[in-house]
Design goal:
alpha+beta; Ribosomal Protein S5, domain 2; five-stranded mixed sheet; about 15% strand; extended; nucleus
Length: about 350
């Protein structure tokens, strides 16, 4: 980096503004010969910093090195303290007596080990945790601004919801349960409802999609419900165990956003809920499949896909080494056996799932 007045400026010039503005200064030290002697100062990322991988810049006695134990210890603190196990950015400069550093851990002398390493790491860990807990109490969330295109001015007609109320008239009071992030009856995130829609620039492409959709609809099995007793019993079982309160929440909730990989935030009336999307998706899909059993939509491929090739692709997908042809004969045998099995079940697959398999296994 160019010569700068501070370390923070150097970090900004190398790693960017987003990193630099989310850093906190950190210091730790010990001067007890019986336990450890060191002095550390640097910067660590706060609770607003989001990254896909951990970054650690570590200097010991002004030499750029790595210390895997220290890096792992701090990563554990972040995972335990912050939501979503945030990957931190860390810059640390540690000074300690030269004889306390072992540089012979790795041939390149890049990896180092320290005398009283456990004590030093514990003290730095404790300081990092203290800083993080304080920063986590006040998080900042960036709001996204959606600007309409200049070619799509927002409608200003008499029906426009943006028209200001005439002077002197009181604005309508919105009921509490309607105070939601988006229209409670409109699918969440549908921002285009507030902007004028552009006419499609490729009418022929739009026509192609329309043709596909209509052909899918035409191929729908005309039966409204499956006449299989087993299916009717499963549906009756679901209906008899239905929870009216949960049903109302799922039916009329507004999606706010994902809290982590599994839980989503949903708003219903004035309440905020954490929903396990994995479990909810499985249950909804199961019920959806049951109610549409034997009358799914179907799409006809221009060239029917050969089952043996599809099965081979699936088997090879699991290989750690795609180029390895060691078990190809076995895979071909498996593909052949499965193709025959599916051909035998073709009539059932067609009736139940609208999957048509011809006599050639396509």
């Amino acid at each position: 980096s160019v010569a700068t007045s501070s370390r923070l400026d150097a970090i900004r010039s190398v790693y960017g503004v987003l990193v630099a503005r989310n850093l906190m200064k950190i210091e730790a030290s010990d001067n007890d010969p019986s336990s450890s002697v060191f002095k550390m100062d640097g910067f660590i990322s706060n609770s607003n910093y989001i990254a896909k991988k951990i970054t650690m810049v570590l200097f010991i006695n002004d030499r750029l090195v790595e210390c895997t134990a220290l890096k792992r210890a701090i990563e554990i603190v972040y995972a335990a303290t912050l939501p979503k196990a945030s990957k931190p950015f860390m810059y640390m400069s540690i000074e300690l007596p030269a004889e306390h550093v072992d540089v012979n851990v790795h041939p390149t002398k890049r990896e180092v080990s320290l005398l009283n390493q456990e004590v030093i790491i514990e003290k730095i860990q404790s300081e990092v945790e203290s800083k993080l807990r304080n920063s986590n109490e006040a998080r900042t969330f960036q709001e996204q601004i959606v600007e309409p295109s200049t070619s799509c001015p927002i409608g200003t007609g008499k029906d426009s919801p943006f028209n200001s109320t005439p002077s002197g008239s009181k604005s309508q009071k919105v009921p509490v349960h309607k105070l939601v992030r988006t229209d409670s009856l409109d699918p969440a995130g549908r921002l285009h409802a507030y902007l004028q829609v552009k006419p499609p620039s490729h009418p022929e492409r739009e026509f192609g999609l329309t043709a596909v959709r209509s052909s899918v609809r035409q191929r729908r099995n005309p039966k409204e419900t499956a006449d299989l007793t087993s299916i009717q019993e499963l549906i009756s079982n679901i209906d008899s165990n239905c929870h009216s309160g949960l049903l109302d929440i799922v039916r009329h909730c507004t999606y706010i956003g994902m809290a982590d990989d599994v839980f989503a935030l949903l708003q219903h009336n004035t309440h905020l809920y954490l929903a396990n999307i994995v479990n909810l998706s499985k249950e909804l899909m199961y019920q959806h499949v049951l109610r549409r059993f034997a009358h799914f939509n179907a799409i006809q491929l221009s060239d029917p896909a050969p089952l043996p090739e599809l099965i081979m692709m699936a088997l090879k997908e699991e290989d750690l080494d795609p180029e390895c042809k060691e078990n190809d004969d076995l895979k071909e045998k498996i593909a052949e056996m499965n193709t025959e099995l599916l051909k035998q079940k073709a009539e059932m697959l067609d009736e139940y799932f609208c999957i048509h398999i011809d006599i050639h296994g396509n």
